[in-house]
User: Fold this.
Amino acid sequence: MKYTIWFAFAAMVAVAQPAAQPAQPAKPAAPVKAPAPRAIPRMADGHPDLEGIWQPRTSGAAYSILPHQGGFFLGGGSDTGVVEGGVLPYQPWAMEIVKDLTQHMEFDPTGHCHYEGIPHANYFGFQFFQTPTHIAVLYENMHARRIIYMTGSHPSDYLAWMGDSRGRWEGDTLVVDVANNNDKSVYDMAGHFHSDAEHVVERYNMVDHDNINWEATIDDPKVFTRPWKMKFPLRRAPKDNEIMESGCFEGERDAVHLVEGLAIIPADHYKQ
Amino acid sequence: MRHTRTVFLCAALIAAPVFLHAQGGPAAAPGAAAKSAEFVPPRTADGKPDLQGVWETRNAAAFDITEITEGHEIPYRPEALEKEQKGPRVDPIAHCAMPGVPRITYMPYPIQIMQRPGYVIFMYEYLHDQRIVPTNTGPTNPAREHLDGVDFWLGDSLGRWEGDTLVVDVTNLDERSWLDSARHTHSDALHVVERYSRTGPNTIRYEATIEDPKMYTRPWKIVMPLHLNKEAGFELREQECTEGDDGRPIHPPYRPAPHGDVFEFPRKYPSTQGASK
Assistant:
């Protein structure tokens, strides 16, 4: 148990670092007053070219997607959070579980080096590589990755931390339908969760060369009473930035707690 | 589906040594090199050889790199060999560490290569590893040099095109990674130069020169083909190490998991959906 707490603490610090900078402004980012926004770059097929590194401005969503005070899990505060209306429409049974999970940050799977899932992964910087048929999204945090296929449909035999992403264009907006999500990923460190019925529709609306308005509509009839929306802006990273390696698992010796998570281990297991 | 693929890969692993033996192992490689002179690779819009697609290795080098090593022998320094034998006995990938370079390439999982102007992107199914290789680097165009004072499990990769071959210079590799499950190791001085060249419609010749003056008496080479996966609709899937599912047959943890699915939240959904609506 001691190790679990230490690890949870270490994870907290580790997650705090990438999010510390975007978390500073307590209000949504003011519009950038650039002299003249550069035009939307375009692919040969006329669709916006999203390629590049993008930095989200998430108001500390990694700590809580709802409004929260500074110092909440070491994070900066946010008066607004990223959820539209500032309320998550939980079903009553789910609300009870969230109350409990908020007190047990050690359940946070990202503390066990798991994928964050969508939308959680988008709280951290990522790089787009774009072709007409597929768009690779390479996240720095947890060396997470997904490929948004512009073709095909969701597989029927598959659940994944990062789900399965299928994209399409609506004007200058990339709409990504994310299904096949497992029920293990969470929205933040505050215990906000979903089930495997979660369905996320993301919209990447490119405003100009350096700005994308991102929003996601999240529907999960097992956990919520209605669909709800999350949104924050993405800004293009400075030109010399690079996505680096984030290992997370680096020869951890406390493998029992990490690999087994918080599974209930039979009392006689170690005697075998 | 997932399990079908794992089974297939395992079968391939078992079959591969026999097949390679029949072919004479890496000795067959020069033939492939000669072929590359004849084969004209397809090209991307910017005129570079097109390496894109999902590729697979069909050998057992993940278990023992000497299978694809030229001469089947690693030129250890005696003192390095002694150090290796006294070193850690547990493969770092059993702890879900990234396998390092070149090991990530011959892990028995598919690799998707994507190309964009100025970049080659390697997306490995294994442990959702990834490498973003800039291709505008090298002596003729030192756009970026290797980083100083920082190590990565997958190193720092700088690429360049030499004719129709993609050359990737990899340094800054974490000294803890192993070259295979047979505990062939290296030091922090490891320097890998990888070469990717198309040798046919369905093959890439992969060659890596492995240099580590602290460990080996001379640079040595591994050579193997990468095979194009032509299964219709094949897409990379998620491989997560810490769950103990897909990764388990390849590198079992210290003890079996008590349950099939070891990472569970203490939450239960209502048995009747929407009962509390």
About this structure: Chain B is about 15% helix and 25% strand. The helical segments of chain B are 2-23, 29-38, 78-86, 103-106. Residues 43 and 49 of chain B are 4 Å apart (CA to CA).
